[in-house]
Design brief:
The chain is an alpha+beta fold. 40% of the residues lie in helices and 16% in strands. The protein folds into two domains: 80 residues, Double Stranded RNA Binding Domain (2-Layer Sandwich); 47 residues. The chain has a four-stranded antiparallel beta sheet with strand order 3-2-1-4, with helices on one face. β2 and β3 form a beta hairpin. It starts with a strand and ends in a 9-residue tail after the last helix. InterPro entries: Arc_rbn_hlx_hlx, HicB-like, Ribbon_hlx_hlx, TA_system_antitoxin, TTHA1013/TTHA0281-like.
Length: 139
């Protein structure tokens, strides 16, 4: 189980905010410290599952020294947030497709909020479900 550094921020008259230096843009908040920690675990797991679903790489956790070397991070209190997810490691593959099929995939993926990898993975999973899983087929 990996652990990432979360930074807790608290302004007067605000909830406890949590940000993740290894995942810029991922933020959450809680009404108290326990709530903030629970929300941080949930937000981090959700984000990582989304990255895996989209075929994106999961960064290795930064060290506390590296995180605190950035002056912008020094106003937060560092906590360790455990990743609670069943996300699998993404593997890069090389496939060959007809150009028109790839164009259709890219257009559909973009229109529906997928990455190319995420759409192909989702489509493959759907076909596997529809055709009865990975059972051997008789000829």
């Amino acid at each position: 189980m990996k652990q990432y550094i979360g930074l807790i921020h608290k302004d007067t008259d605000s909830d406890f905010g949590v940000s993740f230096p290894d995942f810029p843009g991922v933020v959450t908040a809680g009404t108290d410290l326990d709530d903030a920690r629970a929300m941080a675990e949930e937000a981090l797991a959700f984000h990582i599952e989304g990255l895996v679903e989209d075929g994106e790489a999961i960064p290795e956790p930064s060290s506390l020294e590296d995180v605190m070397a950035d002056a912008d991070n020094r106003d937060g209190v560092a906590i360790l947030v455990a990743v609670k997810t069943e996300a699998k490691k993404a593997v890069r593959v090389n496939i060959t497709l007809a150009e028109d099929v790839l164009t259709q995939i890219d257009a559909f993926a973009e229109a529906h909020g997928y990455t190319r990898s995420g759409f192909i993975a989702k489509a493959a999973q759907r076909v596997i479900e529809l055709e009865g899983g990975l059972k051997a087929r008789s000829a």
